[in-house]
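Lab notebook: predicted structure, single chain.

Context: the supervisor wants predicted structures on file for every construct in the current expression panel, including those that have not yet been purified. This is the next one on the list. No modifications to the sequence; it matches the entry in the shared construct table.
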Amino acid sequence: MDGQSHTFERLNMVQQQAWWRLNRFPLFVAARTLSIVGDFAAAAALTIYLYQATQSGLAISGFFAVRIVPRLLGPIGGALADRWNPLTLLILCDVAACVFYLTIAWLQPGYFILLGMVLLAETAATVSAPAARTLIAKSVPAEYRGKANAVLMMIATVSMTAGSGVGGIVSALGYRYALIINAGTFVASAILLSLIPLRSVSRVAEAKQPNLVNSTLSGVRALLKDRELSLIAFATAGTAFAVAVDRPALIVLIGKSLHAGSSTYGFVLGTMSLGGLLAASLALKSKRLAASLRLFGSAVALLAIGHLAISASFTLALLFVAALTAGIAGSLRDISGTTLLQGFRNAKSLGVVMGTVMSGTFLADALGSLAGGLLINTVGPRLTYLVGGTMMLVIAVLTLWRSFTIDRAIPTEPAPVLITPSSSTR
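Prediction complete. Output recorded below exactly as produced.
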């Protein structure tokens, strides 16, 4: 019996590897890596340039505000992914970002024109985010989506850090050169994406499509009507708000309560990132780890425990353990939540669903950061973490309670299975 089980697992692994190769998934991973590195490198280079040129905190704030605004347009970006092939849309977004950053490097525009160009580049990035997740849902068989999302979580974590570092280092040569190199990463990403066969992406045919606004509103309504997925959406946004409430309290807690230096703050953030990578690695090795509503609720509960433990950390050792726990939990929450959302049965509105959740999460994060700043000044860093952790705990309890009344298995659509068990054994 053990031999048969081992043979089945080996066959499943061969089938999975064959699917990755057939659909050239590594090309997609490499393309997303380059695109994210380019995005964050450009942001870092422009931040450094603007500070050196203006010496104004207000100018930097304006730059970050311009980067934030397009992120609220996720539902519309998702609607575009529903109407177009998301692979084509990703290529167009990379080309657009390349053009905008090359234009900035060539023209060296004044502050306000530069902000306008950044707004356009960030709009392209906003469209590409739901398009990438929609592409996974439409091209990756359901049983592999958790692993695909785990891979993307890993490369996003590494690419954001690497991109910021690259932008900071290359900007020493001059921000124009940094932007030219960054534009090159978008070109390389577009080339890699163009090598992926379009046949690997399933399409939802409609005789007549409604206009973009109606498509967006229809998708949002469809999400709200689905009790399970609306629960995941609200829980994701709610935990993002709670995490953001705690975020500004960390450096204050480390400095004033634990009397540690700024380097400790960096190491704690690094520990959280390490936890995220460990969780993604665990999801890669597990068969169905990222496919359960119960896992999603458990991850939120573990995240609450991590943040409550940070509140109660009176030594650096406890703080690092709590930070590692929070990092693991946050990654598992993101992977499981994304995979469940990608199982949305209304395939024609899948992009809107992904974009709506991403924009809602981003807005919740921004509001939570503001609330956290007010709480720190009122009750201090430890009680701020206690408030955030308690909110997460309430969300976890509600989600886990709901998971016992809704136990939906991963649907087998909308992604086509191009390699079947029978064909792999011939």
